[in-house]
Design goal:
The chain is an alpha/beta fold. Helices cover 32% and strands 16% of the residues.
Length: 316
């Protein structure tokens, strides 16, 4: 992979070496891998998410030996950092055409963590997972925005349309689609789209004041929803603007009134052993970050998900 562009990462997640072209023997036994998707050509407000993967990697080094205090495990022995995918800088369809074959090759080898990039990267990733598993997916979607609009400020597609497109294309199971943290302005048809299709929306307003044990009802309800749908392959997409700007100011479309970092951690820890197949973390925009708050939150979210997956596999 060519590291000519200034926004491509120089150092790996948790201090791991970046091994995009390593021979199989060098990364044998690695069940998990991480890759950057440096694209922000579909943002509707502030650009800068193309710099997200590098900032998240830098922030992750603060995690030291990366042993999780709840799961008592570290992903270091199970994780490879594959660097940043080679992608075009302009043109959404060109981006998707370049991303999908790279994603399909990696999905067949690892449980992947994709670091964006703006949220338009999720649609081609879901297409790749749908092709790989041969069936629609369950999805948990953390976000301030519903991303269910039918157009993107006059364009047919972008980072605010991917949920509508995923439903329309049959990439996801409507009843197993869960949104968490939604709070932005929008017409009812967009705001309630997932509920109307049979899914579940936990708005930020509904979750206000809930933390710790108070979130157990949400954890249990989502577990039941997944079980009622046969525990299908489950994908996590975490738009960092699900968090309140107090916790994640470095993003393109900040929305006050969001989740706390501890709420997000509680939910992810409570869902650690669901039938996860992969995740992405999007919309980290370092140019607007204060004191690296946003990249630190993103690194911790990714690390928590990885440690939960490893813990679940160890117990199974």
């Amino acid at each position: 992979m060519n590291h000519a562009f200034s926004y491509l990462s120089a150092g790996g997640f948790l201090g791991l070496p970046i091994t995009p072209d390593a021979p199989p023997s060098a990364i044998s036994g690695k069940a998990f891998a991480i890759a950057g998707v440096n694209w922000d050509g579909s943002v509707t407000n502030r650009p800068g998410a193309r710099f997200g993967p590098g900032a998240i990697r830098q922030a992750s080094r603060m995690l030291c030996d990366a042993t999780h205090p709840l799961f008592d495990t570290t992903p270091l022995g199970s994780l490879a950092d594959l660097g940043d995918l080679m992608l075009p800088n302009t043109g959404l369809e060109a981006l998707r055409a370049a991303l999908m074959p790279q994603a399909e090759a990696l999905i067949g080898k690892y449980q992947m963590v994709w670091m964006g990039g703006d949220h338009s990267i999720t649609l081609p990733l879901l297409r790749a997972y749908r092709d790989h598993f041969g069936r629609p997916l369950a999805c948990i979607h953390f976000d301030a925005h519903c991303d269910t609009w039918t157009d993107h400020f006059g364009e047919p597609s972008g980072h605010g349309t991917w949920v509508h497109e995923a439903f329309t294309e049959g990439l996801v199971i409507p009843e197993a689609f869960v949104q968490v943290g939604i709070r932005s302005s929008g017409v009812r048809e967009a705001r309630e789209y997932v509920n109307d299709k049979g899914g579940r929306i936990y708005t930020a307003r509904e979750l206000r004041g809930q933390d710790g044990r108070a979130l157990q009802g949400v954890i249990d309800e989502v577990r039941t929803r997944m079980a009622n749908n046969g525990n299908p392959p489950l994908y996590l997409t975490f738009d960092i603007d699900a968090l309140d700007p107090a916790f994640a100011p470095g993003t393109g479309t900040p929305e006050p009134g969001g989740l706390t970092s501890s709420q997000a951690m509680t939910l992810l820890e409570g869902w650690y052993d669901l039938n996860w197949i992969g995740m992405d973390c999007t919309e980290v925009a370092p140019p607007y970050d204060h004191a690296e708050l946003t990249s630190n939150a993103a690194a911790t979210i990714i690390w928590t998900w990885l440690c939960g997956r490893i813990n679940a596999q160890t117990r199974s």
